[in-house]
Amino acid sequence: xxxxxxxxxxxxxxxxxxxxxxxxxxxxxxxxxxxxxxxxxxxxxxxxxxxxxxxxxxxxxxxxxxxxxxxxxxxxxxxxxxxxxxxxxxxxxxxxxxxxxxxxxxxxxxxxxxxxxxxxxxxxxxxxxxxxxxxxxxxxxxxxxxxxxxxxxxxxxxxxxxxxxxxxxxxxxxxxxxxxxxxxxxxxxxxxxxxxxxxxxxxxxxxxxxxxxxxxxxxxxxxxxxxxxxxxxxxxxxxxxxxxxxxxxxxxxxxxxxxxxxxxxxxxxxxxxxxxxxxxx
Length: 281
Ligand code: SF4
Description:
The chain is an alpha+beta fold. Helix content is 41%, strand content 17%.
C-alpha cells in the first residue's frame, strides 16, 4: 500500500496532463485527497458514458466498427466494465453521485440505454479526414491515423503528456477534435489548445481552431446537425505562453505540496467532498 508521502514523491516527478492541471486548478485540496491521500471517491455513472462513447468512437475511426450496430456493443462492454469496477469500491449505488434527479440505481441503466443515441448523434456529424500522423523513426516515419493520438510536449521544462481524441484535416490546417459525452460544453478550450500545440510541433502545420463534438446534444427538430452538437473554438486566443504559465503554476504547486482548499460551486460535484472539512453545501 502506497503511503501519501510516497504518492506525493511519485507526483513530483511524473509528467503533467490536462486532467492533473484542471483538477489542481479547480481545487488543490481535492487533488490531494483524490490522488495523493487516496480517500474514498464517490463514484458516478457519467464516467461510464464517457468511456463507452470514446471506446466506440475510437473503434469506428480505426475502421473496426463501421456502423452504429457495430459500435453499440463496444460502447456497452466498456460501460459495463467501468460500472463493475466502480461497484467493487462502492457496491451500493445509492451512495453514488446523482445526475440531477437520477440517483445511482436509476442513473446507471438510464445511461446504458442512452448509449445508442450518443453514437447516432456522433455519426450524423460531417467531419474532415483524419490526419495521418508520422510514427516511428523520425528519419523515415510511417503514418498512423491520429485517433487517440499520444502527445508529449515540453513546455519550457514541464513535460505534458496526453491523448488527443482526433486530429483532423481542414485544408492545409489541422484541427484537434475532442468528443464530449457530457451535457456541458467546456468554457475553457485549454485542452484543445494543448493538443493544437502538439499537432503544430508534430506537423509544422497551422492549427487555429479546435472542435468539441457534443454527443449528448440533440439534432434540430428537422433532424439536422444542431449548433450545440458541434462547437468550434478559436485557439488563437490562447498563446502557448499562457498554457505554459498554467502548467508551470500547477507543477510548482504540486511539487511544493500546496493543497489549499478552494471551496465553491465545484464542491457540488466533488467526488471526495465526504473527506473534506471545507466543503460548501
Ligand atoms: S469539497 Fe470543495 S473544498 Fe473540499 S476538496 Fe472538494 S472542491 Fe475542494
